[in-house]
Design brief:
The protein has 321 residues and is an alpha/beta fold. It is built from 10 helices and 14 strands. The strands form 2 sheets. Strands 1, 4, 5, 6, 9, 10, 11, 12, 13 and 14 form a 10-stranded mixed beta sheet that branches. A 4-stranded mixed beta sheet has the order 3-2-7-8.
């Protein structure tokens, strides 16, 4: 028996999100804890799972804030490293009228890039049922080596590996480099969560099912989830495709963390039911719950600290079950 349900490796940073204007007409920003892997873990912890995070922040005001935030969210922060020289990574998030976002990063370098192979806690990964990662921890050579060390450890330990590309083009030297690392991740995982624009980018196929076929010609990934924003989501598994509509909210504020919340709910379902023998009914149940949770997060600012609880999600999802 393994003690941790899900361990994730990657970025932990401050998302400065717009929050009105000052009396002088200047934009005001709120310092929200962020970073896709910890958003995933925060939702999992909210659903009662034991989670841990591997990453690095600066030994500065924001780094201390982030350590306190993930601890408060129920994520084991014992494996969070603090860099003495490099500051915590920051992101400025501009929100458009429809709730979508644009990012400007302050990360050249940022502390999350400074994680090394030697700092990867193999014993934690070996004690985890699921290992989750993305591509932001593969943008630079040192942290890329650390990520691949962690993935190798997870494979050797028999963990289920989950991968979300979470493409952020400004953080890459080139999109060719981003594509190479995305394909690496696809070659390692049993669960792939990919967004509509990402699958079109990496496969060159406009049709999502054709994109999934392109991926499956190259990689044996049992469970592929495509998140489609306002169009809902799809699950592809063992020759079966299930699509579920979204839960659209009139009071949506922003989409920050929606994809991470969706991904967390998929991992929650796998923790409870396993990855073998998923029927069409089970896939539909999984997607309805994940879509509902993602929808709720869009009505709140930030993500990590405002994840919905199981009862709240089930109350919204109940109309479709």
């Amino acid at each position: 028996m393994k003690n941790y349900d899900v361990t994730a490796l990657g970025e932990l940073l401050i998302d400065f999100t717009e929050n009105g204007t000052s009396g002088q007409g200047n934009p005001l920003f709120e310092a929200n804890p962020g970073g896709a892997p910890c958003n995933v873990l925060a939702m999992l912890a909210r659903l009662g799972h034991k989670t841990a995070f591997i990453g690095k922040v600066g030994r500065d005001f924001f780094g201390e804030q982030l350590k306190a935030a993930i601890t408060e969210a129920g994520i084991d922060a014992a494996y969070l490293r603090m860099d003495e020289q490099v500051h915590t990574t920051l992101a400025m998030v501009h929100t458009f009228a429809d709730g979508d976002r644009d990012f400007s990063f302050y990360r050249d370098p940022g502390a999350d890039m400074m994680l090394t192979e030697e700092e990867v806690p193999k014993e934690l990964i070996q004690d985890s049922k699921i290992f989750h990662f993305g591509t932001l921890s593969m943008t630079h050579e040192g942290v890329r080596a650390a990520t691949k060390q962690a993935v190798q450890t997870a494979r050797e330990a028999g963990a289920v590996i989950s991968f979300d590309p979470n493409l952020r083009p400004p953080l890459w030297k080139s999109l060719d480099d981003a594509a190479q690392q995305t394909l690496y991740g696809m070659g390692q995982c049993q669960i792939l969560k990919i967004s509509d624009n990402e699958i079109q980018w990496i496969t060159g196929e406009e049709d999502y099912s054709k994109g999934v076929a392109w991926i499956r010609e190259r990689y044996q990934i049992p469970l592929i989830l495509v998140s489609m924003g306002r169009e809902g989501s799809r699950a592809y598994y063992d020759g079966c495709m299930v699509e579920e509509a979204p839960f659209l909210q009139e009071n949506t504020i922003e989409t920050t963390g929606a994809g991470d919340t969706f991904c967390a709910c998929v991992l929650h379902y796998i923790c409870e039911h396993g990855i073998e023998g998923l029927t069409e009914g089970k896939l539909r149940e999984m997607l309805v719950f994940a879509n509902a949770a993602a929808s709720l997060v869009t009505t709140r600012k930030g993500a990590l600290r405002v994840m919905p609880g199981r009862e709240e999600v089930e109350a919204l999802a109940g109309s479709r079950w």
